[in-house]
Amino acid sequence: MPPSTQQNKSLAIYPGTFDPITMGHLDIIDRALNLFDRVIIAIAINPGKAPLFSLNERQQMVKKCFPRDYSRITVEAVSGLLVQYAVDKGAIAIIRGLRAVSDFDYEFQLALMNRKLKREVDTIFLMPGFRWIYISSSIIKDAARHGGDVADLVPEHVNECLLKKFPI
Asked: CATH code at 21?
């Protein structure tokens, strides 16, 4: 079996648009690294969404969160069926963050569909730490757009990018 189709018991995929990456996302990544040896941060290319930041900007923001040669994390752009991408990479799990009960219904449906399509890939739900549970990229962008201070909710370099998009 070629390496790309073999399961790697130490690899998980953490997908998202990361528009922008938040402290909640970083908390989920840290938690995932406690469970898996390697995590691919899969930045979604979704034609149905109009992100604030370009794909390249999002990739650079995520990569800058891991300044040293971080061999346990890879950042890649992804389009198409996520569960197939996971199989192609040999991952055994897709990591999904849950903030509230309202997230669960949608995420549960996705997990069941992924399970139907590719039984060999599990979905692992992780919750961010309590201090990040209320934040989302959308809420952060909205606050920043209206002059709100989000400096403690995103990495410093991401806050600088937001300030450039929404000068006060």
From this structure: 3.40.50.620
Report how many domains make up the chain. Answer: 1
Residue 14 parent element (H or E): strand 8-16
Return d(Cα 76, Cα 154) in angstroms, integer.
Answer: 20
Structural contact between residues 13 and 91, judged by C-beta atoms closer than 8 angstroms: yes
DSSP state, residue 91: E
Confidence band for 67, pLDDT divided at 50, 70 and 90: confident
What's the Cα-to-Cα distance from 90 to each of 5, 96, 99, rounded to whole Å? Answer: 5, 18, 27
For residue range 12-47, list pLDDT tens digits in order: 999 999 999 999 999 999 999 999 999 999 999 988
Percent of the chain with pLDDT over 70: 94
Provide the token pair at 94.
């897709």
Contact (Cβ atoms closer than 8 angstroms) between residue 32 and residue 14: yes
Q: What is the CA radius of gyration of the chain?
A: 16
In a domain, 85, yes or no: yes
Instruction: Enumerate the active-site residues.
Output: 25, 49, 99, 137
Phi, psi of 86 (to 5 degrees): -60, -45
Distances in Å between the alpha carbon of 165 and those of 17, 18, 65, 86, 145? 17, 16, 19, 33, 8
